Amino acid sequence: MIYHGRRQIALLTSGYVRKVPLMAWIGLVLAFASALVTNTAYSFEHDAAAALPPLSPRRPFRSIEFLVDDRRWLKAFGTETAGWLLYVAALRLAPLALVQSVTASGVAVLAFVTARGHPSRLARREQTAVILALAGLVLLGLSIIGAPPTQKHPPVIGIVIWLAGCGAGAGLLIAIPTRFGRAASLGLATGLLFSIGDISAKLIGYGGAWLLALVSLIIGYGIGTSVLQSAYQKGDALTAAGTATMVTNAVPIVAGFVLFGETLPHGIRAISQVAAFTCLIASAVFLGRKDAPSAAPAAPPAPGAEPAGESPPG
After folding, report:
1. Phi and psi dihedrals of 311, rounded to 5?
2. What are phi and psi of 77, to 5 degrees?
3. Listed residue (285, 250, 295, 54) closest to 179, CA to CA
4. Does residue 78 form part of some domain?
5. How many structural domains does the chain have?
6. Whole-angstrom Cα distance, residue 200 to residue 202?
7. To pair with 234 at 20 to 30 A between CA atoms, which of 35, 50, 191, 309?
8. Is 190 a member of any domain?
9. What does each C-alpha distance from 132 to 31, 99, 182 come to in angstroms?
10. Does the residue 294 lie in any domain?
11. What DSSP letter does each residue of 117-142 carry, written as one string?
C-alpha cells in the first residue's frame, strides 16, 4: 500500500515536471530569489524598526515619518521592494499557486538570518515552528502539483467579499488584543493585508476593468508594511515576519480554489493539503506563544540591612 502510494506520487510529479514549460521554471527560480531577498530584508527592517520610537498602526502617518527618516530602514525597504519586483516577474511566468509555495520557503531563510547562521540559537518553540512551517509548505506544494492551470476570471462580488473579509480580519487583529503574543497577532494581520496585495496583483494581470485592483494592491501593501513595522517592535523578526509570510502564501492558494476556479485535489493530494494546513496552523500557534518570563534575580540587600529571617537582638 505504501509502495503504491509512493509510486503514485512519483508518477504524478514526473508527469507534471514534463508538462511545466521552460518559462515557468524560470518563474519559479525568480520566486525563490524573491524569497531570499525579501526575507533577508525583513531581518534588516526588524533591526532598524526596533531601534525607532514606538510605531502604531493607528497612527500611520507619524509612523511613516519615523521610518523614512531612518536610512537603515530605507535601505532594507529598498531591498524588500527589489524582492517584490522579482515576485511580480515570477507571477508573469509561472502559476500563482506554485509561486506562492516557492516564496513561502522564505520562512527558513528568515530563521537562518535571525539566528545569524546558527539555528541552534533559536528558542525551542521557534525551531518547532520552522520545522512545522516547512513541512506544511512542502505538503502544500505537493498537493497542488498536477493541478490543471486555469484562466477563469473570478466573480467580482466574490473578490469584493474576499478582500473585504481579509481587511476586516486584519482590522480586528490590530484593534483587539488576543491570547497570542502581540507580534504574532500583528504578523497575522500583516499576512492578511499582504494577501490582499498579492491577489490584487494577480487581478491586475487580467487587464481591462481589473486594473482597478491597483487601489486594493496599494492599500494592502501600504497598510501591511506599516503594521509589520509595529510587529517588529513587539517581538523578533521570525515571529512577526514568519507568521506574516505563512498567511500571505496560504490565503491566496485557498483563494485560487474558491475564486479562481482551480480544481480541488482528491486522494493523496487532498490528504496532503489537510496535513499542510494543520502544520501551518500549528506553526503559527508555536510562533504566537509567549515565552515565560524569567525570574528576575533577587536584589542584593542594602548596606547595613538585616538579613532576611533574622530578628535584631532584643
Report:
1. -100, 145
2. -65, -35
3. 285
4. yes
5. 1
6. 5
7. 35
8. yes
9. 21, 20, 21
10. no
11. T-GGGS-HHHHHHHHHHHHHHHHHHH
**Owning domain of residue 277:** 2-61+68-288
Query: What residue spans of 20-115 are helical by DSSP H?
Result: 22-50, 60-68, 71-93, 96-103, 106-114
Location of C-alpha cell 501551518: 280
- Note the residue count of the chain: 314
pLDDT, tens digit only, all 314 positions of the chain: 444 444 444 444 444 444 556 787 888 889 889 988 998 899 999 999 999 999 887 777 788 888 989 999 999 999 999 999 998 888 888 777 678 777 777 777 787 777 776 777 788 888 888 888 778 777 876 776 666 555 578 999 999 999 999 999 999 999 987 767 888 899 999 999 999 999 998 899 888 999 999 999 999 999 999 999 999 999 888 889 888 988 888 898 788 878 887 666 678 877 887 888 788 778 777 776 655 444 444 445 555 544 444 444 54
